[in-house]
Amino acid sequence: MNEHSSVASDKKNRSKRLWARTLLAGAAAGILLVQASVTMMTGTARAEQADISVRHNYPGPTHSSPVVKPVWTAQVDNYKNHEMQYGPVPQAAAADGRVFAFSGGKLAAWDASSGKRMWTYGKDLVPMVTYGKGTVYGFTVDHKLYAVNAKTGKQKWVSKESTWIDTRVRTEAIIPAEDTIYVIKGSMTFAFDATSGKLRWKANEPMADDNGTEYLAEVDGVVLRTFMVQGALTSVQLDAFDKKTGKKLWGHFGQGEGIKVENGIVYSVHYRYMQDEEDKPEHSVVINAFNLKTGDKKGERVYSWKLEGEPPYSYSWGQILLEGDDLYVEQDDKIAVYDFGSYKEGSKPVRTFTKPNDDKLQLLGIAQQRLMYRDFETGELTGVKTVNGQKIDLRAEGMPVQIDIYGKALFRGQQNGILHGMDLMSGQSLFQVRTGASEYAPTLKTDGIIIIQTPGKLTAVKLPKALR
Q: Which residues does the UniProt record annotate as the domain Pyrrolo-quinoline quinone repeat (predicted)?
């Protein structure tokens, strides 16, 4: 190879290498350009992402029941506007085919079937109403008790004495009895003549410091009430008053309401200090028997059981309910049923069944042979058959706000704007109403009609035959 050929060859090779480097550089630039383009496109098109995203479905079953329309609705005073001042007192009532509520500060009555307004009464009334034997009771603006004929709206009487007390009222109720209308204002009790409205007497439990409960029972000339009394220890107290004069006959600290009054004897659960029971497995419930007139103790009934395991032992008994002669006692993880009518010392339960395994459940009462438990966190109800302990699921697809049971019918107002009418026996929804509301007051019922209470509105729905 000559020099010229060698030089030419070197030039050619350098040219190829230069071309290759140029091609690679261009390619690299192109790749960078494409990557930058993709980055820019992603940055401008991508939606903002949440730092944390969690989905939760409410655990209740979805019911495919038919949606029913109201037969009528009515605008009323919003009960929420008054609850801060008066608390959750009844601001509406329904009975004998009539519905009673407040509109513009007046008491008004509607026909439950048609929604026709029948009458109005008063002005600037306290938004609280109670029905009893054809009469509607409430308070004037200065807290004087009034009585109105439920059919005509005509005033029967207004008491001369005010029930106002200058203290924070924790409990307030109007309780019609046979010939007396009782008014509870905290630890005060007022007794009015049902015919004339005359104040017969008023009585106070000074040790309660205005902490009275809604429990009031009138039996054989004696009025029983319970109070929360504070001292070195705090507990419930059972008092007895003479029906005619209001004189306090007796009182027993640590005693609950009368679960039964029979043959001049009142039976009351003894709520004692339980710290001593932490060291021993033997636990018991004591029900004392007192003479109704004198308060003298006539005996006691002790229901005992033994816990398993080692100390310290937990406080093992909860609610106690009496249904007929069946005494239900929550004992640790089970429910024991005793025959209250044939008590003998050392009595054993006639049957037991497993208690729902949830510390958040509170026993409310008995409906249709079912123990009704409420979850105090979610508001859900769970039914437990008293015959065999079988659980009944009463949930639905929305969180409950208000639940009311009438016989075999359960009405469940939910936060999602739906109210279910359910069969308590099966737990199935038979109908639903689109209320559009997230809050409810108690559902009322009269003559096959339910009245749904939502803020500022009454909604009337005709019940199917299965739930009447």
A: 71-231
- Whether residue 151 contacts residue 134, with contact meaning beta carbons closer than 8 Å, is answered with yes
Note if the pTM is more than 0.70: yes
Q: Are strands 199-204 and 188-193 parallel, antiparallel or unpaired?
A: antiparallel
Q: Beta-strand (E) ranges in 152-220?
A: 155-162, 172-176, 180-185, 188-193, 199-204, 212-219
pLDDT value of residue 358: 78
> Is the model's pLDDT at 382 over the cut of 60?
yes
In a domain, 70, yes or no: no
CATH code of the domain in which 94 resides = 2.40.10.480
DSSP class of residue 66 equals: P
Q: How far apart are CA 464 and CA 195, in angstroms?
A: 39
Between CA 423 and CA 89 the distance in angstroms is 28
Closest to 136 measured CA to CA, from 121, 116, 118? 121
Residue 22 burial (C-beta neighbours within 10 Å; 0-12, 13-18, 19+)? exposed
Where in the sequence is the domain holding 388, given as residue range(s)? 358-468
Last residue of one domain, picked from the residues 158, 188, 209: 158
Domain boundary among 94, 124, 158: 158
